[in-house]
UniProtKB/TrEMBL annotation:
CDD domains: thiolase
The organism's taxonomic lineage, starting at the top: Eukaryota, Fungi, Dikarya, Ascomycota, Pezizomycotina
Alphabetical keyword list: Acyltransferase, Transferase
Pathway: Metabolic intermediate biosynthesis; (R)-mevalonate biosynthesis; (R)-mevalonate from acetyl-CoA: step 1/3
Cofactor: K(+)
UniProt cross-references to NCBIfam families, sorted A to Z: AcCoA-C-Actrans
Protein name: acetyl-CoA C-acetyltransferase
GO biological process, one term: fatty acid beta-oxidation
Pfam families noted in UniProt: Thiolase_C (PF02803), Thiolase_N (PF00108)
A cellular component term, taken from the record's GO annotations: mitochondrion
Keyword Zinc-finger: no
Length: 303
């Protein structure tokens, strides 16, 4: 959405675009597909909307994307222990950033009902971040591949609700309105490969985006790579030769959450926070889109 918004402005079709996404995974219903025209006879089966429309590969084997995460771990020799260690790290980074207040400028507080007779509750921090239990995390059984599997519920992104958005504006409109921009889009890239290897598509999109920005990897200060699973970040870091201290430094989706339609805008928003807090210049955000695709965006800090 952000890339399309930028292109809309560049082509002169708009001067201001709001781009982002939202997902309420906890409210996705179960479907009764046969009832549209009336089920005449026999048992009917409920279909989980999250699994059917969000977490199942629509191509190939029609399998859960967790199985494709296992394929990624196998392809790149990434162990269960490495994934657990990464998950613990991302929780601790997110906890430290939350307690330090660095997310305060990017999170809009929301009031939710406290229940009958109780006052409303103000939600001003990501809920999952606090839920780290290292001993339990290390003891969890594999979620998708019982024998020899490496991906578990806690070293993968949880089911979450969330929304994120950014305001894009042409340079002329910025000057006209007298607003102070926080970042500038320098370039972008899209790439795709076999659907079952969607996990490593960001490793194709990120170099394209950097080249489109007229930069090299040496120019990049920090990266945000979406963590559908811990193995996704680990594999892309391995392929691109990225240092651990430059990627998801305030935690990632395993701890913060991965509401599907929200995460692209969320990691870009967090990247602006990282660049501001670290007093850095160039950042790259990369995310796999499912179906084998990925997108990446290069931004320059103006804060």
């Amino acid at each position: 959405a952000i890339i399309l918004g930028a292109q809309t402005i560049i082509t002169g079709n708009a001067s201001i675009v709001v781009a982002g996404g939202t997902e309420s995974m906890s409210n996705v219903p179960h479907y009764l597909p046969t009832l549209r025209n009336g089920a005449k006879y026999g048992h009917q089966t409920l279909v989980d909307g999250v699994l059917q429309d969000g977490l199942t590969d629509a191509y190939g084997k029609k399998e859960h994307m967790g199985m494709q995460g296992e394929l990624c771990a196998q392809d790149h020799s990434i162990t269960r222990e490495e994934q657990d260690a990464y998950a613990i790290q991302t929780y601790k980074r997110a906890q430290a950033a939350t307690e330090a207040g660095v997310f305060a400028k990017e999170i809009t507080p929301v009031e939710v009902s406290g229940g009958r007779g109780k006052p409303n509750v103000k939600v001003d921090r990501d809920d999952e971040v606090k839920n780290l239990n290292e001993a339990k995390l290390k003891a969890m059984r594999p979620a998708f591949q019982p024998n020899g599997g490496t991906i578990t519920a806690p070293n993968a992104a949880p089911i979450n609700d969330g929304a994120a958005a950014v305001v894009l504006m042409s340079e002329a409109k910025v000057k006209e309105l007298g607003v102070t921009p926080i970042a500038k889009i320098r370039g972008w890239g899209d790439a795709a490969r076999e659907p079952e290897r969607f996990t490593i598509a960001p490793a194709l999109a990120i170099p394209k985006a950097i080249a489109h920005a007229g930069l090299t990897a040496d120019d990049v200060d920090f990266y945000e790579i979406n963590e559908a699973f811990s193995v996704v970040a680990l594999a892309n870091m391995k392929i691109l030769g990225l240092s651990d201290d430059k990627v998801n430094v305030f935690g990632g989706s395993v701890a913060i959450g991965h509401p599907l339609g929200c995460s692209g805008a969320r990691i870009v928003t967090t990247l602006t926070t990282v660049l501001r807090e670290k007093k850095a210049k160039i950042g790259v955000a990369g995310i796999c889109n499912g179906g084998g695709g990925a997108s990446a965006l290069v931004i320059e800090n103006l804060q």
